[in-house]
Amino acid sequence: MAPLSITRHWGSGHLYMTCLIGVLWSTAASGAIQGICYDCHTMHNSQDNAAMTFDGSSTPNNNLTRGNCYGCHARGGTSPTVNLGTDTMPQVMHSGATDLAGGNFGYITGLKGSGAADNKGHNIGDL
């Protein structure tokens, strides 16, 4: 006995219409980060023949970013958040009183607490 075909039972027009409705009714995906991509990312480390890295280096960074993790998320200021362009960046190294859920690398570097020590937090220095 041959298997039933959906198009034989329903007709190809119904199948196409069902797919179209599914696409039209689907919701757009949204990410936690909102803003202009090139504030943080670069495709080839150049825009208008100028280096896009935060330090002006012509050597591209990993993951198509303009800097490493510390470049955006470890500014060493007093606030747990920093505004960069149109984005608000959570800080994981700051001297403020309130730490965010990601912790604070300030305890490792000595910026915060009673001195620098690797055993005072999770360290991403080798990433």
Provide structural commentary.
It is a single chain. The protein has 127 residues and is of the alpha+beta class. Among the domains are: 34-67, no CATH class; 70-121, no CATH class. The chain is built from four helices and four strands; from the N terminus they run ααββαββα. The chain has helices at 6-10, 12-25, 69-73, 106-109; strands at 46-47, 50-51, 81-84, 87-90. The strands form two sheets. A two-stranded antiparallel sheet has the order 1-2. A two-stranded antiparallel sheet has the order 3-4. Strand 1 (46-47) and strand 2 form a beta hairpin. The chain is extended and about 75 Å long. The model has no long low-confidence stretch (mean pLDDT 74).
Question: Can you tag this structure with a few keywords?
Answer:
single chain, 127 residues, alpha+beta, two-stranded antiparallel sheet, extended
